């Protein structure tokens, strides 16, 4: 089976196929961001650090005092999302059967050095001004 390619319409042609292709692409891009980037990095990864913080460090520990304001609320938000949002919108903003694959692919790509802000800026070729270097 040959793949189907959608191209912008020529003058006078019907553009519904092109419009549908753009809608599918934007929807897929939103799903990849929502699940791959936002959920994986902002929720799942931070929950690991929050659980570890509360289980392993006493509240008087200096590292606990340093991290607690940043991780405050991560666990309750994730629990509430699992109870309410994921059940209510099980078909909304999901990649269907590929959700686990998408999360795994995102975590495979994520490296520890990406969590260190100066290294992340170097990787993204950010030069410190308001512009980003593009090659």
SS-based structural class?
A: mainly alpha
Number of strands: 0
**What's the total helix number?**
5
What would the average pLDDT be, to the nearest integer? Answer: 79
Helix and strand run? HHHHH
- The proportion of strand residues reads under 5%
- Terminal Cα separation, in Å? 36 Å
Helical content stands at 55-70%
How large is the radius of gyration? 21 Å
- Poorly predicted ranges: none
How many strands, which pairing sense, and closed or not: the largest β-sheet? none
In short:
The protein contains five helices and no strands.
Folded structure, characterized:
The mean pLDDT is 79. The chain has 5 helices and no strands. 62% of the residues lie in helices and 0% in strands. It has helices spanning 16-56, 62-71, 74-88, 99-109, 117-123. The protein is mainly α.
Keywords:
135 residues, mainly alpha, 5 helices, 62% helix
Write the layout of secondary structure elements.
Blueprint: H1 16-56, H2 62-71, H3 74-88, H4 99-109, H5 117-123
